[in-house]
Amino acid sequence: MIVQPHPGGRPTLEDVAARAGVSRATASRVLNASPRVSSEALEAVTAAVSELGYQPNRAARALVTRRTGAIAVVFSEPEPKIFDDPHFARLIRAAARALAESDVQMVLVLVHSAEDQARAHRFLAGGHVDGALMFAPHQSDQLTAVVRKLPLPVVYGGRPWGPLRGLHLVDNDNEGGGLLATNHLLSLGRKRIVHVTGPHDELSAVDRLAGWRSAVGADDAMTELMTENGGYTREGGKRAMARLLARIPDLDAAFVASDLMAAGALEALREAGKRVPDDIAVVGFDDHAAIAAHTEPPLTSIRQDSDNQVKHMVSHLLSLLRDEPVKAKRQVLPTELVLRRSA
Amino acid sequence: MIVQPHPGGRPTLEDVAARAGVSRATASRVLNASPRVSSEALEAVTAAVSELGYQPNRAARALVTRRTGAIAVVFSEPEPKIFDDPHFARLIRAAARALAESDVQMVLVLVHSAEDQARAHRFLAGGHVDGALMFAPHQSDQLTAVVRKLPLPVVYGGRPWGPLRGLHLVDNDNEGGGLLATNHLLSLGRKRIVHVTGPHDELSAVDRLAGWRSAVGADDAMTELMTENGGYTREGGKRAMARLLARIPDLDAAFVASDLMAAGALEALREAGKRVPDDIAVVGFDDHAAIAAHTEPPLTSIRQDSDNQVKHMVSHLLSLLRDEPVKAKRQVLPTELVLRRSA
DNA sequence: CGCCGTGGTGAGAGCGCTCCCGAGCTGATC
DNA sequence: GATCAGCTCGGGAGCGCTCTCACCACGGCG
Question: Across all residues in chain B, what is the average pLDDT?
């Protein structure tokens, strides 16, 4: 059989069909796994596809199906430096891996200025993607509010601010983690456990604080006294710890809401001549590979499995895109205590 | 004028044309900034576009122009953990920012297994993107070899292994940086300057070593004696430093080929009771924000501006895509010395 | 023996866009 | 006043795919 090669490069479905001796429609049916094809046709088309190295043209397919085969992964974060955070790298990597075998492309959208936000909104509204994963932890974030009005399936990583009604999300159990951390310190017999919080405009920090509160049974006055905001930065953690130390000289333990802040807190404790964990036990949060194992002493921490979180987000979104039922709109993933030497 | 809204959602070019009272062809000309349109037509179409909130359908456009409007950003890295490296995050962020205003989408492709590699090759060959940025530093990498056969514009970040003939790339001046670092130590009057290298299968490490060699004038025997491979890891840096210290007890300076390794080296020096910089001066490489400023003492380091590198890569690739002439196929970006306390 | 249902198939329309080509309209030239 | 160059513009084809619809062959049934 003589098969005319497609003039000018890549084979089309027409070429495949010709080679397989069937019509374009049948070839298409095979590619889309339609049940209504004979086994001979299926075989012939499959062979032709691999012989020609055929790959469907995404644009043509997108044009007729009105599906782009791409999703956006949006990070909305007013502090651009946060993007240097390895946590962010980890989330991206996890998303890339989770999507790798699904033939769905991921388009990265980083937002920090108002201009970026307008661009992101336009992009998401513009039908360039079929859905989105959103990370927008800040209270001041405006993007969530406008995106939720879009007829676009979105799965959030962590709870965004504002009403959750109708939102799909996968959160880590920050409150449970805070509880776990603080209870561990209590079980060591510690009595005066302070807490270095993250920024109050991020719900992860608010939740971790809530965990601490419920473990120690703190009222507002006690919370006021025993906590300091470290803003999720190393320097902030150091300063917060120093302030707490000045205010409560006989404190014997600290739950610090991130490993990065805990590294700063350890510095403050060292400078104050406190021994860890002998004088003061410290528990961090994140179980950050690049930090927790390398502090002095190595940091006991709460692990949240970001890979797993993203994997859940991706599969949740893909279900939404396929119009499959999802078990629950909201999932909360457990955290666990990782023991090292600081507590 | 009565304008029939497009039945079922998003406005099409047809709608815009109808509203502006022109033909689809003219509307298209306006969108593509063709010079052959009257100012009235231009105005009318522009107005219609913004009134309708029209956004062109990428798929339809891609279908006819045979351009996808997307590029791939490929990281080929056998050690998946490297993806947790903040350096990687920085590169991604820089790429995202550089592409943000160009209306080109970026598709992230992470490769570490052979399977990933086959998938990446298929993807790049499949016409899903118009071009690619490639980071493939390892000698063992197979992807470069197959990708260079593709009729796809590619700009490399750093020199890949193998023949460079015909490749477009933007490299950092690693050799110059090594020279800079070592000359700085020489200028401090140091006499026995050792070097902790990165893995020999990465040209960045090979180049940094070459810089050290040329600065100290080392022959092979001296190189054998005065260098140790730290593999670009913290632990490796620590072990390498310890070995050098054992072999050359009176060494008075070390050029360590990455900040991460330098952090490990400082640990080894501390454990050996050496003071930095009094006994031994140390210079790192990367000027890594999360590391260099936070070691004890803070690390003097060589800065390579990754943001700038990626910016150059992106603009180079965009030029290639537009068939514009590029000044040079290969660019080498300068490095600079950042002084802190370790040297 | 005619009828209908059923499974496999192909023809053809059409997704929204770009671009070629030729129509029409101006103003300058002989 | 006829001709032509120079512009702007619209008609229409066609990019590669999916999907509807009609068709055909076949077997089982009344």
Answer: 91
Residue bearing the bigger pLDDT, A1 or B206: B206
Rounded CA separation A202/A137 (Å): 5
Nearest nucleotide relative to A57: CA against C1': D16
Q: Does B187 touch chain A (CB under 8 A)?
A: no
Interface test with A, best of B31, B49, B57 (most A CBs within 10 A): B57
- Which of A13, A31, A58, A310 to probe by mutation at the B interface, max B CB count within 10 Å? A58
The count of other CB atoms within 10 Å of the CB of residue B308 is: 15
Reported as half-sphere exposure (CB side, CA atoms, 13 A), residue A282 has a value of 35
B311 Cβ contacts chain C strand, under 7 Å = no
CA B15 / C1′ C17 distance in Å? 13
pLDDT digits (tens, 9 = 90+) for B158-189: 999 999 998 999 999 999 999 999 999 999 99
The span from the CA of B287 to the CA of B258, in Å, is 8
User: A143 near A76, Cβ under 8 Å?
Assistant: yes
Buried b (16+ CB within 10 A) or exposed e, B198-234: bbeebbbbbbbbbbbbebbebeeeeeeebbbbbbbbb
Nearest-CA residue of chain A relative to B61? A59
Tell me whether residues B106 and A110 touch, CB distance under 8 A.
Answer: no
What is the spatial distance between Cα B318 and Cα B310, in angstroms, rounded to a whole number?
Answer: 12
How far apart, in whole angstroms, are the C-alpha atoms of residue A321 and residue B261? 45
- For the ranges A318-327, B21-30, B132-141, B145-154, the lowest mean pLDDT is seen at A318-327
Digit-coded pLDDT (tens) for A165-221:
989 999 999 999 999 999 999 999 999 999 999 999 999 999 999 999 999 999 999
Please give the torsion angle defined by the CA atoms of residues B145, B150, B155 and B160, in that order, rounded to the nearest 10 degrees: 0
* DSSP single-letter state for residue A202: B
Q: Which of residues 28-87 of B touch strand C (CB under 7 A)?
A: 28, 31-32, 54, 56-57, 60-61, 63-65
CB contact under 8 A, B100 and A116: yes
In whole angstroms, what is the distance from residue A340 CA to residue B83 CA? 24
Residue with minimal CA–C1' distance to C7 is A36
Average pLDDT (A7-21) is 85
* A162 close to A142: Cβ distance less than 8 angstroms: no
Q: Give the end-to-end CA distance of chain A in Å, rounded to a whole number.
A: 76
By C-alpha distance, which of A94, A126, A86 is closest to B108? A94
User: For residue range B205-215, what is the model confidence (pLDDT) as tens digits?
Assistant: 999 999 999 99
Residue written as token pair 């140790």: B228
pLDDT > 90? residue A288: no
**Local structure of residue A81 (DSSP, 8 states):** G
Nucleotide nearest to B17 (CA to C1'): D10
- From CA A197, how far away is CA A206, in angstroms rounded? 8
